[in-house]
Structure formats: C-alpha cells, structure tokens
Design a protein that fits this description.
Transmembrane segments (chain B): 137-155
CATH class of the largest domain in chain A: Alpha Beta
Oligomer: heterodimer
Helix content of chain A: 25-40%
Radius of gyration of chain A: 20 Å
Number of strands of chain A: 17
Shape of chain B: flat
Keywords (chain A): Metal-binding, Oxidoreductase, Zinc
Helix content of chain B: 40-55%
Number of strands of chain B: 0
Region (Disordered) (chain B): 1-22
Order of helices and strands of chain A: EEEHEEEHEEEHHEHEHEHEHHEHEHEHE
CATH architecture of the largest domain in chain A: Alpha-Beta Complex
Keywords (chain B): Membrane, Transmembrane, Transmembrane helix
Distance between the termini of chain A: 12 Å
Radius of gyration of chain B: 29 Å
Structural class of chain A: alpha/beta
Family (chain A): Belongs to the zinc-containing alcohol dehydrogenase family.
Largest interface: A-B, 88 and 79 residues
Largest sheet of chain B: none
CATH superfamily of the largest domain in chain A: Medium-chain alcohol dehydrogenases, catalytic domain
Number of helices of chain A: 12
Number of helices of chain B: 5
Strand content of chain A: 15-25%
Strand content of chain B: under 5%
Largest sheet of chain A: 7 strands, mixed
Order of helices and strands of chain B: HHHHH
Distance between the termini of chain B: 90 Å
Number of domains of chain B: 2
C-alpha cells in the first residue's frame, strides 16, 4: 500500500509499505478514504517531538471503511464507514472509566504522560497513522464510530479531532453566560474553539494570530473579533484595555509549542530547543486572563519544560485546565450539533490533495502558503 | 445609557450548552472510584509480538496494545535503549531521544542510498509547492546560497594564491 513516510524534519514522501494486519483480537483494519494533516502533525514534521522515527507514517484524523476485523470485534462489521477518534482508548482502564479517553493507560507503552495516538511518534505509542491507504485500528469495539446516516463524510472527518478539541477547549474554559473569551491561535482548532465558545453562552469572543488570511477566515466562520498581534504593540496590554482593564474571563491556548510572537521564546523554544517549544501563547494567556480566571490549554507542547510565569498563576489565583480531547466522550453531543446545523466543520477545509502529493501538502500547511487553513489527503484519489 | 448589543445571541447554537448541568462532562472529573483500585482493572487481552518495543520504566509492563512499526535499530536504536533506562522525568530520557531522531535521519539517508534510492530532497521538502506559491522567497534563498558559495569560492582561491607566494 501507499503511505506517507517521514524521513526527517521537513522531509516526507510517499512509499510502499505492507498492508497492516490484525495484531490483537480487538483490532480492525480500516481502508482510509480521507485523512487530514493536523496542526499538531507539524510539530512532528518540524522534528520537535522526541522519538519520531524515520519511516513512521503520520495521521491521526481519518475516516474510512472497515476492511477486516479481529476475532473479538463485535461492534463493527466489514464495510462499515467509520470515523476514528485520534486517541486510542481501551474503555476499560480506570482513566477510560472516568471518560478520560485521551489518557488511556492501555494504549501506549512508551510514555505514561500520554495515551496512544495514531501516527504520533513512539512517544504516543508507535502506531502508524492514517495518512496511508490502510491503517490498523486497535480497540475497534470502543473507538471507531459508524458515521451517522446523512452526515457528510468531511464533517465526520473533522469530528475525529478538530471539532472535539475545539469544543473541549471551550468546555474546559468553564464559560459562563456573558463571558469574554480570548483564543490564542487562529488555526483550525483555535477557529473551532472560538466558534464553540458561543455555544457555551459567551458574549464576546476574540481571536489572536499573526496571519491576516486566518484572521479574516475566523471573523467570518467563528463570527468573532480577530486581531493581528504583529500590529499590536503589546498584546497583553491591548487585551487588558479592551476588557475594561480587568482581563478576559477565559483564555484558550490553541497554539502550543510552535508559537510565534516573542523572540526569546522562539529562540529558546523553537530554534535551540532548550524548552519544549515556544510557550508564547500560554505566557500571554496567563497574563491576559482576569484574576480568578480560567486558562484552557489544548496546544501541543513537548514533554520537557517550558518557561511560563507560574508566579502570576499563583498570585492571580488562576485555574489551568488542559488535556487531549476526550473524543469519544464528546461525540454524541457533537454529532447532534453537526446534524442540527449548529456547527459546519467541513467549511474549514480549504485544500484537498491526493496522497501522492503529501510533501507539497505538508509544505503548504507548514509554510501557510495559498491561504491554507485545513488540508485533507485523499488516499484513494491516486 | 448605552444599549446592550445582544446580536451575538443570533449566532446559530448560541447558549445551547450554557447550562453547566447539561454539558457533556461537567465537572471535569467523573469520579467512579476505579482509580482507588489502582492498576487492578480487568486488562484487555495482551497483544503478542516479537518486535522490540521500548517501554517507559514508569510502568511495570507494556500496555495491552502498542505499535510495532519502526523498531529501534542501529546507532539510533542504541541511543533509544539508553534513553529508556531513565524515567520520563529526566532529561536523560528525552534529550537522547531527540539525538537519536537526528542520528536516525542520517541512517535513513544511508539506508536509502545503499538500497539504490537517492532521496529527492527537493520533492520531499515540497519544493513544487514552494515554487508555485512562494516563488519570491525561493529565488531569494537560491540567490543567497549562490552568493555564499561565490564568496566561499573566492576566499578559497585567494588563500591558495597566498600559499604559493
């Protein structure tokens, strides 16, 4: 089969690989029809995530058709069209029982701090991902969800990560009716978080980024205020002034370790890798939120340390909530929102590529070329 | 008195999840008591595999399922095995893994060439897309690199001449 093949930072290609087989009685093999490149794939692509091995296949946002099932799979049938949550969860461990499906303890031998994730380095379990014609899906009785009748396949595709992550970002913010919410990062997840903040009753939603085309998109799609931090002398001061000098009720970090905007953070976090990515967005969130406010973090950082003003967290009495999205937990509600037309996820897809053009797709997304918001790979289009 | 602008309430779905009691999971922790049983939950069937899988020393054994792709090999594999002797708390775990990734990149190139496949750097780095959408920057980079090469060449010629004087 054809599969995306990582060769080192900024280098990927399509190669022939063996079709995966059943390795566990609860495995399924899924023939991938659509697969996204996620903003967090760029952390891998940029070489920021430890234990990203040459020869790995990325891709944790995908939908497809069940091709084969293991002997203990009872919840799926061959031929089912499924959306597959990006996190691999057993549904049985103590964490899964608390619906913390992003923190499963039975899906990743390599690190205890993160559950298994498809195509996200050996630090997240060493599973090949869905940027390929076929993918092995463990715990097929639990994770994969049959795409509801009448749902557009691209809406289903975005329910594997972008929508749940954006929604959970807003949910973790504990938004109260009338709140002012600031989202740092106008990538797909940030835009979705801004859109979802309205569902929780926000009265004002502000998004901060430095790419005008993304800010324009966010204004229209998420119906929020959007500001370019490059045109603001001091983003924290601006946010204080525009919130009656008190700060936002909720701040969401939807950027993670690839953040721009602060030279020192960029040099130490992204260039020299002396910290686990640039913590600029988190830094701004801590300093822009009101006293007693809530910070929600869904941006991806590496596993070591970051420079953030933790003293201000203490002195302001802040609450920081963070997690990988618990996709399976949120799906019933989100499917309802999509089917009712309250969320239109597929509108954020701007680019579609055959799998053979995966290197160009990564380059376009990484370098923010051609006004790219969200690229999708089509393995069957070759 | 300024009239409040409530137009945001017309956004489709506004406030539909505003009730904290009707959120998918509120409060955040859904406590079941299972975590007090520690690791004594009924484990799923254990995946069997002969592939070498490095597991964190912060857990007693491998998880029930795991990926078997790209097992550790070569010098990078040695470095990874060393890294996994240290807990996730230590730099001695993460920094060697980052080093192993860079070594692995060189191993990949050697492996490519030894199997008769010369990696197409331009294609792998998405040069086609750059040329199509970012031509100015590409030309700038090429001209910059050419200037550096020219300066280097001129300097090396000057040094050679001096040696013969």
């Amino acid at each position: 089969m054809k599969a995306m093949n990582y060769r080192g930072p900024f280098r990927v290609r399509v190669s022939e690989k063996p079709i995966p087989g059943i390795q566990h009685p609860e495995d399924a093999i899924v023939k991938v029809t659509h697969s996204c490149i996620c903003g967090s794939d760029l952390h891998l692509y940029h070489g920021l995530v430890p234990d990203t091995r040459v020869g790995s296949t990325f891709g944790h946002e995908f939908v497809g058709i069940v091709e084969e099932i293991g002997p203990e799979v009872t919840e799926l049938r061959v031929g089912d069209r499924v959306l597959v949550p990006f996190n691999i969860a057993c549904g049985k461990c103590a964490f899964c029982k608390q619906e913390l499906y992003g923190n499963c303890h039975e899906s990743n031998p390599s690190a205890t701090a993160v559950g298994g994730i498809f195509g996200y380095s050996h630090t997240a379990g060493g599973f090949d991902g869905g940027q390929a014609e076929y993918v092995r899906v463990p715990y097929a009785n639990f994770g994969p969800t049959v795409i509801p009748e009448g749902m557009h396949v691209e809406d289903a595709l975005l329910l594997t990560d972008v929508v749940p992550t954006g929604y959970q970002a807003a949910e973790m913010g504990g938004i109260q009716e009338g709140d002012t919410v600031v989202v740092f990062g106008a990538g797909p997840v940030g835009i979705m978080a801004a859109r979802c903040a309205w569902l929780f009753g926000a009265a004002r939603v502000i998004i901060i980024d430095h790419l005008e085309y993304r800010l324009d998109f966010a204004r229209k799609y998420a119906r929020c205020e959007a500001y370019n931090f490059r045109s603001l002398e001091d983003v924290v001061l601006f946010l204080k002034k525009t919130t009656d000098w008190l700060g936002a009720d909720v701040c969401i970090d939807a950027v993670g370790g690839d953040a721009a905007g602060d030279t020192m953070q960029t040099i130490t976090g992204r260039k020299l890798m002396l910290q686990a990515g640039s913590a600029t967005a988190l830094h701004w969130a801590i300093n822009s939120v009101k006293k007693g406010g809530i910070i929600s973090v869904v941006g991806v950082y590496g596993p070591t340390d970051n420079l953030v003003p933790i003293g201000n967290v203490v002195n302001k009495g802040l609450t920081i909530r963070a997690n990988q999205a618990s996709v399976k937990r949120l799906l019933p509600r989100l499917i309802d929102h999509v089917m009712a037309g309250r969320l239109n996820p597929r509108e954020i897809i701007t680019h579609r590529f055959p799998l053979s053009e995966v290197a160009d797709a990564y380059r376009i997304f990484s370098a923010k070329l051609d006004n790219c918001i969200k690229p999708v790979l089509l393995p069957s289009a070759d | 008195m300024q009239e409040e602008n409530n137009s945001y309430k017309l956004i489709p779905g506004w406030g539909v999840d505003a009730n904290p009691d009707d959120r998918p999971n509120y409060p955040m922790k859904k406590w079941t008591g299972d975590d007090h049983k520690r690791i004594n939950w009924q484990r799923p069937a254990l995946q069997q595999s002969s592939v070498e899988v490095l597991h964190s020393n912060e857990r007693p054994s491998k998880s029930a399922v795991y990926g078997t792709t790209v097992p550790p090999t070569g010098l990078s594999g040695q470095i990874r095995r060393y890294a996994f002797r240290h807990s996730e708390d230590k730099y001695a775990h993460w920094l060697p893994l980052l080093l192993a990734d860079r070594v692995n990149m060189v191993e990949g190139v050697i492996e490519d060439i030894s199997s008769g496949h010369f990696p197409n750097y331009f294609k792998e780095r998405g040069f086609t897309a750059d040329w199509k959408y970012n031509r100015g920057a590409v030309i700038q980079k090429v001209v910059g690199a050419a200037c550096v090469l020219l300066v280097w060449y001129a300097m090396s010629k000057t040094k050679k001449k001096k040696r013969f004087i």
